[in-house]
Amino acid sequence: MLQLRGVTKRFAGVTALAGVDLDLARGEVLALLGENGAGKSTLMKVLSGVYRPDDGRILLDGREVAFAGPREAQAAGVGIIHQEFSLVPHLAAYENVFLGRERRTRFGTLDRRAMAADARALLRRLGVELDVDRPAARLGVAEQQFVEIAKALAGSARVLILDEPTATLMAGEADRLFEVMRELQRSGVGMIFISHHLEEIFRVAGRVQCLRDGRSVGTLPVADCTPRGLVNLIAGRDIAQLYPPRPAGGPGPVVLEVRRLRRERRLPDVAFSLRRGEILGVAGLVGSGRTEVMRALIGADPAYARDVRLDGLPFAPASPADARAERVGMLPEDRKRHGVILPFSVAENTVLTNLRAVRRPTGGWLRRGRIEAVARRFVDRLSIRASSTRQPVRDLSGGNQQKVVLAKWLHADCRVLIFDEPTRGVDVGAKSEIYALMRELAAAGLGIIMVSSELSEVVGMSDRVIVMRQHRVERTLDRAEDITAEGIVYYATGGHLA
Questions:
Q1: Which helix (H) or strand (E) holds 463?
Q2: Beta bridge partner(s), residue 309
Q3: DSSP character string of 382-445
Q4: Which residues, including other chains, have CB under 8 Å from residue 244's CB and lie 6 or more apart?
C-alpha cells in the first residue's frame, strides 16, 4: 500500500535522511526503531506532509504522491498520532475529532449534532465509550489517546503512524490500545509503530525496520528477532547488559531524611531516607503521588507540613532555586515544559543552574567562551548529538533533550539528584548510557532518587525501593531479593494484583 524509495532530507547541510526505503502492506504493523536522532521523526514528518523530501519518492497504492502539507497527507489517508497530544484543550472531544474538517448544515453553520454522533460512532468502532461533549482538558490520558486515533480515522486514514503511543499510558490502557490496533489491522489499516519498549514490538508488530544515522540498517520479521538482537541493531554495538551491576560495597551515611512531608492537610504524611551513593527507586501507579511528593520536597509545590533534614540540617526550600542553592536538583518528568528552555541553545541551557561559574569576577557579565567550554565538555561526556553547542534545544531529539537536562544538573554539582522518569522517550542505547552515568554518580557519593513507571527500570537500577499508594509510602523494599516486579505491583495495588 505504501512505498518510500530513496527518501533524503537535509537541514542546513546536515543529512537527516539518506536514501531511505520503506514498505507497508495493507493491515500490517511495521515497527520503526532507532536511537534518538536516527531519523524516525524526520521520516514520519516527510510521510505526513510536514516536510518535503529533497530526493526520493512516496507512492500510495502504486501512485506517486507529493504532499504540500499535512492537510494533503490527511486527504490522501495518512494519519499521525504524535507522542505529545495535539488536541485543543478547551474544545470538546467531538470538536477535536473533526477539527479542520467540520460538518456543516445546509445553512453553513456547524452541525454539532452530526459531529457528536459521528465521533461517538468512531469511538465505538474502537470499543471506547466516553463523553464526546467533554473538553479535551478534562479527559484522561488514555481517553485523549483514543480521541487522537478517532481524529485520524475521521480523515479516512489508511496509513496510521503511532509515535510512542504508550508513553503516557498505564499497562491496562496500553492493552486496550493494542486491541484497537488489532481491530484496525482487520479493517485493512496499515500502521507504522514507533516505540522504545521492545516488549511492545513483539506484541503488535509483524516486521521491524531500524534506522541509524538517517539510513535504514535492516528490516526483519519480528519472529526472527530477539530482544538483545534488536538492541544491538538499534545501537550499532553490543549492549551486553542494559543495567550496570550494583557496586560491591554498601551506601554511605544518610544524606536526606524526610521525617515528615505532608502536601495537603487531608493527605497522609510521607517519610523516607536517602543515603550517599544510593539509588532509591520510587514506584507506584499513576496518581499515587510520586511526582507530587518530589515537587513538594524541592519547593516547586507548597507543603502543608514538612520536617526534612539534609546532612543533618533543616531543609525547607521555598522554591526550586532554594533547593538548588542547597545542591539538590530534580530532572523533571516533563522535560519540554520544566526541564529546558526550548528556544535557548544547548550551551545556554547547560549553564542555567550555575551561572556563577561562567560569570566574570567583576561586573557580573557572562563569559561566552567559558559557557562554550562547559557545554562542549558535557556534550562530549554525554554524547549529545547536536550540530553545535549553539543549536537550539527544540531542534534536538527527545533523548538528546533529556541529556541536556542531565548536563544542566551535572553542572550544578548537586549532592542529591531526583530523576523523575529519567528515560521516558529515550532509546535503548541512550538508556544504557544514562543508567551507567547514574551508577557512576552514585559511586562518587551522590544520593539519587529515581521515580519511574517502568518496573524493569526500578528493579534493575534501585538499591532500595519505596512503593507509593494513595499518596503514602505503602512499603519499603530494603533487600535486593525483595525488589521484584511482582512485589512492587502487589504493594502498589494494595494486594489486588498479586
A1: none
A2: 257, 314
A3: HT---S-TTSBGGGS-HHHHHHHHHHHHHHTT-SEEEEESTTTT--HHHHHHHHHHHHHHHHTT
A4: 435, 436, 439
**Residue-wise DSSP of 106-131:** TTSSB-HHHHHHHHHHHHHHTT----
d(C-alpha 243, C-alpha 207), whole Å: 27
- Whole-angstrom distance, CA of residue 19 vs CA of residue 2: 16
- Write the CB contacts of 340 (distance below 8 Å, at least 6 apart in sequence): 349, 393, 401, 404, 405, 408
Assessment of whether the complete model's pTM goes beyond 0.70:
no
Side chain identity at residue 164, one-letter code: E
- Residue 240: predicted pLDDT: 58
Order across the sheet with 78-81: list the strands. Answer: 78-81, 159-163, 190-194, 29-34, 207-212, 215-221
Strands 305-310 and 464-469: unpaired
Reported as a single tens digit per residue, the pLDDT across 298-329 is: 999 999 899 999 999 999 999 999 999 999 99
- Which of 69, 61, 20 is CA-nearest to residue 40? 20
Residue 382 burial (10 A CB sphere; 0-12, 13-18, 19+): buried
* 272-284 b/e (C-beta count within 10 Å ≥ 16 → b): bbbbbbbbbbbbb
CA distances from 47 to 29, 67, 101, 420 (A): 16, 8, 20, 33
Q: Decide if 94 contacts 133 (C-beta within 8 A).
A: yes
Residues belonging to the chain: 498
User: What is the C-alpha to C-alpha distance for residues 32 and 207, in angstroms, rounded to an integer?
Assistant: 9
| DSSP label at residue 471 | T
Q: Which stretches of 184-312 are assigned E, i.e. beta strand?
A: 190-194, 207-212, 215-221, 254-262, 270-275, 279-284, 305-310
Residue pair 73/48 in contact by the 8 Å Cβ criterion: yes
Q: What's the pLDDT tens digit per position in 80-138?
A: 887 666 789 999 999 999 988 888 999 999 999 999 999 999 888 777 788 999 999 88
pLDDT tens profile 386-407: 889 999 998 887 778 889 999 9
Reduced to 3 states (helix: H, G, I; strand: E, B; else coil), residue 459 is helix
Q: In whole angstroms, how far apart are CA 279 and each of 245, 433, 460? A: 12, 16, 11
Quote the DSSP letter at residue 259: E
Is 13 a residue whose pLDDT tops 70? Answer: no
